[in-house]
Amino acid sequence: MALSESGVNFGQLSDVGLDGRVLAFTLALVGITTILFGLLPAWQVSQVDLAASINSQGRGAIGGGRVPARSLLVIVEVALAVVLLVGASLLLRSFSNLSGVKLGFRPENVLTMRTLVMGSADSRANLAGAILERVESLPGVRAVGTIQFLPLAGMTNQGPFHFIGRPMPADPTSTESEVSTVSRGYFAAIGMEVLRGRDFGPEDRMAGPRVALVNQAFVYKYSREEDPIGRVIIGDWSNPKPTAIVGVVNDVRQNGLAAEPRPTIFLAQSQVPGYLTNLVVRTAMDPLAMAATIRREVRQVDPRQPFTDIQPMSHYVSTQLARPGLYATFVGAFAVLAMFLATIGLYGLLAYEVTQRTHEIGLRMALGARPRDIVVSAMWQGGRLVVVGLALGTLTALALSSVVSKLLFGVHATDPLTYLAVAVVFGAVAMVATFVPARRAAVIDPLTALRYE
Domain locations in the chain? Predict the structure, then answer.
């Protein structure tokens, strides 16, 4: 239920339920698998040569020098478990890296709601201004502002621009920037910092001089050698006019957690008003507790004002982590299950071999073999299978690295530390699985073993 509510909320999976066809297919698959794996041992028993089996008793030879099918199954189990463990480890590290990404804003105690402002440019600007004044006067509201597209949304406007007083670039795309329309108070509401210059204010009106703020990525790319404050730009955006840069703000992850901040120009909503806008309110209490009050105040300004996507900004950020978290959870669960099955298979195989070789072990101990030699011999038999499985699984994981690399952030699909950690962990688990039957073999009473048939 937790996964369905917070992890699988991608829009197309909101109405997932139990499907009868899927259930019938699953039951049929379970039945077929049970029958096949039940018939296979029976078929192997029916093919046994009784004379050869009797002659091989007590030799300790396994399969006449051939690798038994059960050993191959254990190798395959180990290899598959290694592939899943590598994938799960990479996804978990990627998820951890994404969780630690510096957002550039503070989502705590922030409420967001989407609305649509209609009418002429002047009426849109006046309506947005009236809404801001009404909401910021509410008790418990620390700051309020609007932005066309919320951070992390992966949506923004983009276009070329040039500096007034400088030659036009031969290639307009060489000076491209993202363009975002925000109101006064937005940077305080979202938790961004004005590093230099000033913020938008009530004096920035439709009829006044055009002003803009830019982010650090813009300064680094286009104005490293000259102070951007006071420079005038004009761009390919709605109703373009010469616009003076009056401030610099910190970078924000606009296009998702994994995307580096791009050069961005912030235009004043009061001068270039849009239609779609997101109201961002920083509160002194639980944001959702104020949602109804804020909605009521906005409708005092415009009773027809629609609202959608009302949610705390912290929840909005958590949904950005839902998909990578879900991948890591599912693959991790399958990896642990695969490792458990491989460990059980390895233990079962060695326990069976110890039982089959009881007579041989008793003979070796009667001839002077020490318990430590028996343990080493039994563990070596299982260790060879683990080493082969680890090698095969590692090679398979490397071959599939290009597939999983598309889901990773901050870690390479061929990261040697991850592969080494998987090998060490699986090797330690395998040692325990092989030691238990090996230890049991070492404490066999030689006299009892010699009488064992």
Answer: 1-39, 70-103+314-453, 110-284
